[in-house]
């Protein structure tokens, strides 16, 4: 999900060769997005309090949340809580989505929970499964392959545009994010969130509002993919090398190499996912 730009920490300023260290490196996560905000303040990310920008295009993941209830409603808050629960596998694909249980879990009344469930259903994160009623959507093999196919096309386009359009500050921040990734390889929870933000940062570096909008929808669908467990940990170091190759290509302003690097990365991730799916039946 693409975060509300208001919540994104400011991108640090410095020379092209400046690097953060220690605890400051940890703050690098999400920084590229702030520079893109500044560059596009009048077009993409100049969001008002409703989440809309001057072009009428919304880029925040809270767009659907805002639809979950009117002014004064707790629906948007419930939406964010339920979405986070799905993203962190507190609610797993196939789990039943029951108003009463969720209201107890999140200490809310059933009305905002009902609004949130409706919004999540519109997102495709909740679906109806016959007699079981509403469940967290579970992607089958074909849906997963289709998702990776679209991801490869969109992300490679974003990387090619980033090679052309990313500012020096954005490239510095991308490099910082790769450095941080190397430090948190043993922390699977932080690593998953960091990976999401790294790819999200590349979307913003494309400086293209339509790519952002399509990739926001893609990020929502990616929430439904199950963690890869041990197989994912085995791939972490390989993924780090692939991320470095992506940033190297963007930094050299080579669109073709940037597209090729991210296509390779997505295909390797897809191969690992296929292996996991086949193992688990």
Written description of the protein model:
The protein folds into two domains: 15-54 and 140-280, Four Helix Bundle (Hemerythrin (Met), subunit A); 62-136, Winged helix-like DNA-binding domain superfamily/Winged helix DNA-binding domain (Arc Repressor Mutant, subunit A). It is 62% helix and 2% strand. Strands 1-2 form a two-stranded antiparallel sheet. The chain contains twelve helices and two strands; from the N terminus they run ααααααββαααααα. By secondary structure, the protein is mainly alpha-helical. It is globular. 36% of the residues are buried. Residues 1-62 have low confidence and may be disordered.
Short characterization:
The protein is mainly alpha-helical and 281 residues long.
Distance between the termini: 28 Å
CATH-defined architecture of the largest domain: Up-down Bundle
Count of spatially separate domains: 2
Strand share of the residues? Answer: under 5%
* Main β-sheet, spatial strand arrangement: 1-2
The CATH homologous superfamily name of the largest domain equals GntR ligand-binding domain-like
CATH class of the largest domain: Mainly Alpha
Number of DSSP-assigned strands:
2
The number of helices is 12
> What name is given to the CATH topology of the largest domain?
Four Helix Bundle (Hemerythrin (Met), subunit A)
SSE topology sketch:
Layout: H1 23-26, H2 32-39, H3 62-67, H4 75-87, H5 99-105, H6 110-123, E1 126-128, E2 134-136, H7 141-165, H8 168-183, H9 188-205, H10 209-222, H11 229-251, H12 255-280
Antiparallel strand pairs: 1-2
């Amino acid at each position: 999900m693409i975060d509300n730009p208001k919540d994104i920490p400011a991108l640090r300023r410095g020379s092209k060769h400046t690097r953060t260290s220690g605890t400051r490196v940890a703050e690098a996560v999400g920084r590229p997005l702030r520079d893109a905000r500044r560059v596009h303040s009048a077009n993409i990310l100049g969001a008002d309090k409703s989440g809309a920008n001057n072009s009428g295009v919304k880029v925040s993941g809270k767009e659907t949340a805002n639809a979950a209830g009117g002014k004064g409603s707790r629906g948007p808050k419930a939406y964010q809580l339920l979405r986070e629960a799905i993203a962190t596998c507190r609610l797993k694909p196939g789990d039943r989505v029951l108003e009463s249980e969720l209201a107890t879990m999140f200490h809310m009344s059933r009305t905002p929970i009902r609004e949130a469930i409706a919004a999540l259903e519109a997102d495709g994160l909740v679906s109806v499964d016959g007699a079981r009623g509403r469940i967290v959507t579970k992607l089958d093999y074909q849906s997963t392959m289709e998702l990776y196919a679209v991801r490869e096309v969109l992300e490679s386009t974003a990387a090619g545009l980033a090679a052309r359009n990313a500012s020096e500050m954005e490239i510095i921040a991308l490099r910082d994010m790769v450095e941080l990734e190397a430090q948190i390889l043993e922390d699977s929870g932080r690593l998953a969130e960091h990976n999401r933000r790294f790819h999200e940062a590349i979307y913003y570096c494309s400086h293209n509002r339509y790519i952002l909008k399509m990739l926001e929808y893609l990020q929502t669908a990616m929430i439904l993919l199950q963690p890869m467990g041990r197989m994912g940990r085995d791939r972490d170091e390989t993924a780090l090398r692939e991320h470095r190759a992506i940033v190297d290509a963007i930094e050299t302003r080579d669109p073709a190499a940037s597209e090729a690097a991210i296509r390779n990365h997505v295909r390797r991730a897809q191969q690992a996912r296929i292996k996991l799916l086949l193992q688990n039946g």
